[in-house]
Amino acid sequence: MQIINIIKLKKNILFVFISFFCSINLLGSDEFEVKNIYLELSINNNTDHRKKAIEKSFQIALSRYLKWITIESDTNVSLLTSALNAKDLISGYSIESEKYKKEKYSAFISVNFNKEKLERALQLKKIKFFTKKGPKTLLIPLMEFNNKVILWDDPNPWFDTWYRRPIDANLINFILPTRDVDDLITLSADDAKNLSYFKIKNLAAKYNAEDVLVLIIKLQKHKERYSYQLKVYDGLNQEEVFYLEKENSEEENFNSSLFRIANIFADYYDDRWVKINIEKINSNTEIFAVVKYKKFSDWIKIKNFFLKNDKVSSFTIQNLSNKNALIKLNIESEDLI
User: Does residue 235 or residue 320 have the better pLDDT?
Assistant: First the structure.
């Protein structure tokens, strides 16, 4: 075990020595990842389709990630994506799969951004952002149609919409029930609609979820068109957190309409998470610290301690050597130090 003491100096500079057990796991990451970007290109002679797809995936990944971590409008995200050179911020990529079929080339590509480079670029442009993942949040997608409440029944197109949607498409860690026998016993459709607290809490405990959202979508059909009403409730405090009403969607666009509604809510909830945390950052205490260590491996443990700590809203390395580091912290409470 390494012993740590803290000595406060003038101008908010600290010498920080922190206690760690050797068994601490390395946590946190120096990269941001956007997974499974789908590209489809028409095949032309004398064209490197793979190279073209990779370059395009960089732009799409940057735009998608900026939308997650900022509360900027779509227009501003588009302008920001154009202003930044995505290639300079990339730390790596992987082609998950690719196909040449008839006159089409298609691929799924995952892109990794260098965390420090991207954060520095946003700071230079004075863009407010927040990158930490949100809590594990269990979704309970409930559908009302023809005076029937549908949850576990098959089909439930609303549940299937969330199942098909990429689970890592936002900062919030959305998860879905597996719809096994235990789920059916624990929570009925009527229980979910009535926000039965103890039954919802029991389902959350099964999946180790910190939060639960009950997404109730009500459909009405008028000839060949649908109207939609979506209400989303926090299942643990039973408060309404979102409302959306959409009318006159054509029957042939039924599935795509559900998908758009799911994305509208997910983007809203993501922005809500980012906004809350940006506001916390603005009210935080900024502290500079000098961290001393004997081995570089100890620095890795110290760094990941701060990255993991919920009281640290931002962590920036100002200077680094093999014996000490100057870091800048934004913290919610000086109790941390």
Answer: 235
